[in-house]
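Need the bound structure for guanosine-5'-diphosphate, inputs here:
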Amino acid sequence: MEVVTAEFLTSAADPAGWPAEGPPEIAFAGRSNVGKSSTINALCARRGLALVSGTPGKTRLLNFFRVVPHGGPELRFVDLPGYGYAKVGKAERAAFQALVEPYVSQRATLAGVVALCDPRREPGEEEHDLLEWLEAAGRPAVVVATKVDKLARHERKLTLERLRASLGVRRPPVPLSATTREGLDQLWARLLTLAAAVSGAGEGA
Ligand code: GDP
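Answer from helper R.:
Posting the output first, comments after.
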């Protein structure tokens, strides 16, 4: 997928900071270091769009990007704050929820949430909570298994199936590598389907 435009729009610390509702939005969630920035950059074919992190906890905001794939439609990507750092405390987790929960529950133009997981590690409470929470909110989730270039050929199928089963999701995770670019087309196809569902629902309303 060729992306014509990808640009940073704004950051928001609370609902007052959200941009006015417009194009369908795709949000990205995952614990720190899972490969979230790299995935967003790879989807947009832009190197420094979402900053590749070095500092855990750096992103405590919702970051909105305007993304126009070739042939449209215009979208927004929303980079949700990372969660589940090694030293995360109850207060920090509550802060994450306070920031993300209103967005996920109230945003009419939210088409779906990409839940990024590293398939080499067992999903934790955060991943389970996120998926349960999206389900309860009636928000579509797309599970992406990141860094699959690190999986050996022979273990790959089993590892991805284990991730699917552990998360209790029906569809297999989208295997993705920002390094080899594997899976980007498949993910784009899923995102465009989600976006079309939201645009369609909005028409004539
Ligand atoms: P974030 O904290 O979730 O935004 O993660 P980053 O995108 O900053 O990536 C964390 C680390 O994983 C960085 O060192 C990246 O270079 C590396 N990384 C990200 N995606 C991939 C991938 O697909 N393959 C490999 N091998 N490394 C990756």
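Comments: DSSP finds five helices and seven strands in the chain. The chain has one domain: 3-198.
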